[in-house]
Structure formats: C-alpha cells, structure tokens
Specification:
about 250 residues; single chain; mainly alpha; 5 helices
Length: about 250
C-alpha cells in the first residue's frame, strides 16, 4: 500500500486522538461515583425490602390489635349486661342466679386474658413501628446520598462526554486528511491490536511493541520508497517513519 509521507504522518495524530478517546472511555467507566452509586442503590433496595416487610408486619399487627380490642369490648359489654341483670334483682331463681354469677366470673377471666393479648400486641406493635421509623429514616438518608452521588456522577460524565465530543471532532478533521484505503487498514489494525494501529519508528525501535528492529529490517525500511506503507515485523502495526527514526545513516549488515 502506498500513501504520501504526510498522510502517513497524520496517522500518528489520529492514533493520538484515538488513544485520548480510549483514555476518556476508561475514565468514564472507572468513575468512582459509578461504584458508589451502585452500592447506594443496592442499599436503598435492601432497606426497601426490609421496610416493606416491617410495614406489612405493622399492618398485620394493627389488624390483630383491632380484633383483640374488639373481642375485649365484646366480652366487657356482655359482662356489663350480665352484671346489670344481676344487680337488677329481677332474677330470683337460685340456680339461674348462680349460673349468671358463674358466667360473669368466666367473662372476667376471659376479659383479663384478652386484655393481656392486647398488651402483648401493643408491645409488638411498638417494636415494629419503631423498626418502620428507623428504616424510613435510613432510607431517606440513603436516598439523599444516592441522589447526591448520582448528580456528581452525571456531572463528571457530562464533562468527559464534552471532552470526548471535542476529540471526536478533531478526529474527523484528521481522518479527512488520510486516504480511504490507509484509513481502512488503520481502523482494522486498531480493532486487532488493543486500539493501537500506528506507531512511530524512533531510534530504530517500534513504539508500538517497544522492540528494536534488526539491522536487516532497518536497511529494508531505508531502501523502501517514502510513500510505501511499512509494517512492524513483530507487532504488524503500521510503522510511521519520522526524523527520529534513525534511518539517516546507512547501517552495515
């Protein structure tokens, strides 16, 4: 493949811009706020799960408490009616009177048992409601932190994206100076070699793989026309000749 030396030199400018884009993409992926936001999101989700469980439990206990209190009221009401009947003096039959007194006593014991249940339920409700209050506070704090971290993440990402847009525009301008076939080769190699497709030959060394070229390889490049695109024999990247290539003086084999 042939290309004017100036076009080959532009590959180094293009490579520099593509490397800058890679660094920006790495910065974007590596933002500490991304990890922190994900951690806080997991924390909020975990609290939400606990809170739903606590709220459901509180609702169940509230229904249980209402039923227990209703049972107490029902027993108390029945005991009050029986007591009024007993105190009215209308019951004169000794057996019926004994039965009524026994029932009042039984209702008293039942009321005491139900009132004990109500107290236990109220204590349980207090504990669960305390959990709901605590979890609600923790959730509000976690959500506030998540919101703040997300805002910082988005701001940092926007700044990186602005830099990326600027570099991309520069890349488009540089790409326009490179022949289509050379640009296609460059893009193909870039996808194959970790984003680095073109490297300068400096002081007899390929800056792509960092290996020194042999005397034979340097002499072959020296004998190659300036418009001939050369490749590194080791890493196969495009080698761009520069004033620092070390090709000015012949090298004996």
């Amino acid at each position: 493949m042939k290309a004017e030396p100036a076009a080959q030199a532009r590959l180094l400018d293009l490579q520099e811009l593509d490397t800058a884009l890679q660094r920006l993409d790495h910065r974007l992926r590596s933002l500490p706020e991304i990890v922190e936001a994900a951690r806080l999101k997991e924390r909020v989700d975990a609290i939400d799960a606990e809170l739903i469980t606590a709220q459901t439990r509180a609702s169940d206990i509230e229904r249980h408490q209402r039923k227990a209190e209703a049972d107490v009221d029902q027993v108390r009401s029945r005991a009050d009616r029986d007591t009024k009947r007993l105190e009215s003096g209308q019951i004169t039959n000794a057996k019926e009177l004994q039965n009524l007194q026994s029932e009042i006593a039984s209702l008293g014991r039942r009321q005491a048992e139900l009132e004990e249940v109500v107290l236990e339920v109220m204590e349980e409700a207090e504990s669960v409601n305390s959990d709901v209050t605590r979890l609600t506070g923790e959730r509000e704090e976690a959500v506030a932190k998540f919101t703040e971290v997300t805002a910082r993440r988005d701001t940092a990402a926007a700044e990186i994206q602005w830099d990326r847009t600027r570099v991309t525009q520069d890349r488009e301008r540089v790409s326009a100076d490179i022949p289509a076939d050379l640009l296609a080769l460059y893009d193909k190699l870039r996808s194959q070699y970790d984003g680095v497709a073109a490297a300068p030959l400096r002081y007899g060394r390929c800056n792509g793989c960092k290996l020194a070229l042999s005397t034979v390889e340097l002499n072959e490049i020296r004998a190659t026309a300036a418009d001939e695109v050369v490749r590194c024999e080791d890493c196969r990247r495009i080698l761009v000749r520069t004033e620092e290539s070390g090709l000015n003086a012949p090298v004996a084999e």
